[in-house]
Write a structure and sequence with these properties.
Elements lengths: L7 H16 L5 H6 L5 E8 L4 E2 L3 H11 L4 E4 L6 E2 L4 E8 H31 L6 E3 L9 H10 L13 E3 L1 H7 L2 H11 L6 E5 L2 H10 L3 E5 L3 H11 L4 E5 L7 H5 L5 E3 L2 H4 L6 E5 L3
Parallel strand pairs: 6-11, 7-8, 8-9, 9-10, 10-11
Antiparallel strand pairs: 1-5, 1-12, 2-4, 3-5
Helix pairs in contact: 1-3, 1-4, 3-4, 4-5, 7-8, 8-9
């Protein structure tokens, strides 16, 4: 599937905030102290010792552009591409001070998003022989949700809702306060517009039976064993989408997918993905 296009306004706002945080009140005093203003440089951004999946080129490009628009940024790979150790993903050329000052912010964005994309690709590969799709959650880094969810897409995953206003997702606490599965679903249906999907979380087959009686668009099967998931999928019989969630790990996702669920949501994609080790190296030639 084609990748979504990142909103350029969101990209600029995030990069500008990151640069302001890093530059502080006086800017890069190390570079100012050691590098003459007229010095120019050429550098490459490359993967280090581990393979990964590329995500975040737009943020890296915008970082160098905002520090100095005369810096040229040439992408040598594209978001979603698989990177081998040592692979060069971009080349930058221009004023040396600007390149050195922008380096860390650009690498922070790239490392973080490549990490999310890479971990997602491992989960997607583990379930590729099934119908299940790997989805992210709202367990994202504050301020980076749009980018982390974009990185999930780069890694072969799908996006769950982006925020509280995307869809109705009735969780266990909503059910408790509303007085049960049926009252919660009836209230949601009377409130939501005709384009708003309704999903509800259940953790027992008895709750699932109530959902099937009342009707919904998606049911979230929370923390169920593969045996229970298989029975739940049989009960659903294709009448609504079945999403498995809770306690999903790389060593368990295959068995979960093989139960026949349509979706598997994994919080770890965004809250626990290790950054991919990338570096910027000055080309002394």
């Amino acid at each position: 599937m084609p990748l979504p296009v990142l909103n350029s306004l969101l990209v600029e706002r995030a990069v500008r905030a990151a640069l302001e945080e890093d530059f502080g009140r006086a800017g890069d005093i190390t570079t100012q102290a050691t590098i003459p203003p007229e010095a120019s440089a050429s550098a490459v951004i490359a993967a280090r010792k581990k393979p990964g999946v590329l995500a975040g080129l737009d943020l890296a490009r915008k970082t160098f552009e905002l520090v100095d628009p005369t810096v040229t940024f040439e992408a040598l790979a594209g978001d979603g591409d698989h990177l081998s150790p040592g692979a060069i993903l971009a080349r930058v050329e221009g004023p040396a001070r600007a390149i050195l000052a922008a380096e860390r912010v650009a690498l922070n964005f790239l490392g973080r998003l490549c990490g999310v994309a890479t971990l997602t690709s491992h989960y997607a590969a583990a379930v590729a022989h099934t119908r299940a799709k790997i989805c992210c959650t709202r367990k994202t880094t504050p301020g980076l949700r749009a980018f982390e969810k974009y990185a999930v897409r780069c890694g072969g995953g799908m996006n769950h809702r982006f925020g509280l206003d995307d869809a109705v997702l009735i969780k266990d606490n909503h059910i408790a306060v509303a007085g049960g599965v049926a009252p919660a679903l009836r209230a949601a249906k009377s409130f939501a517009g005709h384009l708003v999907k309704i999903e509800i979380e259940v953790d027992t087959l008895d709750q699932l039976k109530q959902v099937l009686e009342e009707g919904a668009d998606v049911v979230l099967l929370d923390n169920m064993t593969p045996e229970l998931l298989r029975e739940a999928v049989k009960m659903i019989g294709g009448r609504l989408l079945a999403e498995a969630s809770g306690g999903v790990h790389l060593d368990s996702v295959r068995a979960i997918a093989e139960t026949g669920v349509d979706l598997i949501s994994v919080g770890a994609l965004t809250h626990s993905a290790p950054a991919l080790d990338l570096g910027l190296d000055i080309d002394m030639r």
